[in-house]
Structure formats: structure tokens, C-alpha cells
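thread: overnight batch results

M.L. [08:02]
morning all. the overnight job finished for the chain we discussed friday. pasting input first so we're all looking at the same thing
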Amino acid sequence: MAAMVTWQEAEDALIEAVECLAALPDRERSYLAAGSRSCWPAIVKDAQADYADADAVPSAPLSRRMMARLDAVLLGERAAALAVPEGHRALVGRVLVMKRWPGPEGFGWDVVFRGEERHAKAKLGVTSDALRKRYERAVGKVAVRMERLGLGSAD
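M.L. [08:03]
and the structure it wrote out:
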């Protein structure tokens, strides 16, 4: 019998997956950023080099358990996140990132609304409350799919 998955567990799993995704190395990021600043390539830090700056230390690689969880929740062919309706996936992704790494204003649905308007480059035909409801329904569908896939906390 699959363990019941609550809405909060589903949201926590999605946020954890976004954190894992952010921790994956992006080998092209420094190259693209360097090319956007000037015609000369910027010096790219060697991951094995010794730096005086403690923040420059590369992050630890993800464990197999974390990669398996990331695959099951977000990236796999049968990922739980596929329960999110296609038209709401961008909204859900932005909200997850905003909840995990809130900006200087903090997290709030008014902040989400302004961000969605900026992204759409037009006035939205909905309210911030409608965006919140879309997000909550989408995470609810993820919880149901996680339960069906046996991805509850008992795994």
C-alpha cells in the first residue's frame, strides 16, 4: 500500500528537487556569462584549484539517493511533476524558485503576480488569488501522482 502524500509533502518534494537541480553543475554557464560581458573570455575558475575565497569552493556532488529523488519527482519520464498541467508549469516553477530563494521583498502572491505580469509583458486577466489557486491545484495533482507512484515519505 502506498503511503498517503499530503499537499505539503508534495510541495516540499518539489522544492527539494529544485534545490537539487540548482546544485547540478552547469559547465556552460560561465562560458555564456563570459561571452555576454565582453569579446574576451573571462577566466573560469578551476574546480580543483585552491582559492582564498571560501565561497568559491565547488558544491559537493549529489548523492545517488538525491539524483533518484530528482528523477522521480522532476526529471524522469514518469516524474510526479508531469501531473502539473502544461499551461501552469512555468507558474509552478517560478513559484517554487521564489519560495526557495525569496528576493529582497520576500515571498508573497503579489510579488508572484508582478513577476508574471513582467514575464507576460502585458496585464494579466487574473488576480494574484487566481495564480495562488492554480499553484495549489497543481501541487495537489502532484501529491496524487506521488501517492500513485509510491513516492510518499515511507519510501
